[in-house]
Design goal:
The chain is mainly alpha-helical. Helices cover 65% and strands 6% of the residues. The protein has one domain. Strand 4 and strand 5 form a beta hairpin.
């Protein structure tokens, strides 16, 4: 096998370099997301930054960096990445505390979630999603025959999950904490952890989630607004109500790209967490169906890659990465449609934001990497 550092030129026994249908779906989702951001953010960008293309320019750079990262993760040797996992976990935890360091961390809206990286910013909690998938895939692979011994398999996995969730909670990032819990539960289930232990882990998360909600006023208000939307229509419920109105206005065929009205003044954070409302208003119910069709195809193709891979570690990695993308997408759309309480979680491929897009494409790169392994677990030199 020809290699340089952690990278190698490899192909599986069928001679395929990558899973082209999956890559094509990723490109299509990025393209639709870019179009939605272009048409949805121009009015707000013109008002806030005197530049209608402010978010579009930034997202162009983010896409370029993201695709480079995707290629890197698609071709890095996973055995090399696995060997560096202790360092990656430690580095991720250290970086996750940097938002609290004066001069490095950035506080927005009372939350310390970001660090300054030159002229750009980065959200360390996004990196935790990727590292947690690798960590759990590694431990469940190594201990697959000892799942009946929780002290050597389940407890270490649960402990690291709890540590990461706690650090994210300290950053006041409730939505990402919930997402990380959901990703971990998915991998616990896929790894074959006995249902009793699976239920115990689920039960342990309930008081943790309740504590995160009840100890922060704005989170409690959001939950109450979700349960009783008529109580505070001009504050806690305003954003979701505006998003629902936009979806309703789109009817079946939509108003047409660029013709949405709600994005101009009604929907706060329209370029980020509520970009799907713009898509629904302008593309209508038909556009929503197209989005979900593409999401289902992307997820199905990713899970197929995971199922076909005969290497347990790589299979778990693919399952975790696909689940992270799917669960985050469902959470975001669910908030916009008032299926879930409002949370600040971006929509993969669509929302403005470099950290989210970068990690989204890194997750896609890992799935492509697994697809190159083949169904028998054998690889050939080029």
């Amino acid at each position: 096998m020809n290699s340089f550092g952690g990278f190698a030129a490899e192909r599986n026994e069928r001679g395929e370099r990558v899973d082209l249908p999956f890559v094509l779906l990723v490109v299509v989702m990025c393209g639709l997301g870019f179009v939605a951001l272009y048409t949805g953010s121009m009015a707000y960008a013109a008002r806030a930054f005197n530049d209608p293309l402010y978010f579009v320019r930034r997202q162009s750079v983010n896409l370029g960096i993201g695709f480079v990262a995707m290629m890197a993760f698609a071709f890095v040797r996973l055995d090399f990445l696995r060997a560096q996992l202790p360092k990656l976990v430690l580095l991720t935890l250290v970086v996750s505390f940097l938002p609290f360091v004066p001069g490095i961390g950035i506080t927005k809206n009372g939350a310390s979630r970001w660090i300054a990286v030159g002229p750009a910013t980065f959200q360390p909690s996004e990196l935790m999603k990727l590292v947690l998938v690798l960590f759990l895939a590694n431990i469940f692979d190594k201990k697959h025959d000892r799942l009946h011994e929780p002290e050597v398999s389940i407890y270490p996995a649960a402990f690291m999950t709890f540590v990461m969730i706690s650090v994210i909670a300290l950053q006041d990032d409730f939505s990402t904490a919930i997402l990380v819990i959901a990703i971990a539960l998915t991998l616990f289930f896929v790894a074959g952890v006995k249902i009793l232990w699976f239920l115990k882990f689920c039960a342990l998360t309930i008081p943790f989630v309740a504590l995160m909600i009840l100890t922060v006023e704005y989170r409690l208000k959001r939950v109450l607004a979700f349960l009783f939307p008529e109580l505070d229509p001009f504050d806690s419920s305003y954003q979701v109500n505006a998003a629902l109105a936009a979806l309703s206005d789109g009817e079946f065929w939509g108003r047409g790209l660029g013709n949405g009205l709600r994005k101009v003044s009604s929907i706060p954070e329209v370029q980020s967490d509520f970009i799907f409302a713009v898509w629904g208003e302008e593309m209508g119910f038909f556009g929503v169906l197209v989005y979900f069709a593409l999401l289902v195809m992307l997820s199905a193709r990713g899970y197929l890659i995971a199922i076909r891979c005969r290497d347990r570690f790589r299979s778990y990695v693919a399952f975790g990465c696909v689940s992270a993308l799917l669960l985050q997408s469902i959470m975001n759309v669910g908030v916009v449609a008032r299926v879930f309480p409002a949370t600040g979680i971006p929509l993969p491929f669509f929302s403005s934001g470099g950290s989210s897009l970068l990690i989204t494409l890194c997750l896609c790169g890992l799935i492509v990497n697994v697809s190159r392994w083949g169904e028998t677990g054998e690889m050939e030199n080029v």
